[in-house]
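Lab manual, section 2.4: Encoding a predicted structure.

Procedure: take the sequence of the chain (107 residues), apply the prediction step described in section 2.3, and record the output as structure tokens. A sample record is shown.
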Amino acid sequence: MHLPPKVTDRAFARLAEIGAAKDGTALRVAVEGGGCSGFQYDIRLDAPEDGDLVLEGQGQKVIIDEVSLPFLENAVIDFTEELIGARFVIENPNVASSCGCGTSFAM
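Recorded output:
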């Protein structure tokens, strides 16, 4: 049984703060080939497309394309604020290893 990714309340709240839904966009989370470990995340504001999984909360949407969905099974999409900056992060139990810079991963 495939478990879809989850989005934290903190991530939905940040999307509401930046007004993502006002212009019809959502947070797109995709997995692409590349980086020093083989895969990397593409996280950006984008319009939903046919076939996307749409996760909704607090009037906001997070979208994931069909190709990326198996790579994000049971992952948690969150937002964090640290001294080095604020960003959306993915806690992905499917990742076998990641590179030293933390931007790419292997499965």
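Check your result against the sample. The chain has one domain: 6-106.
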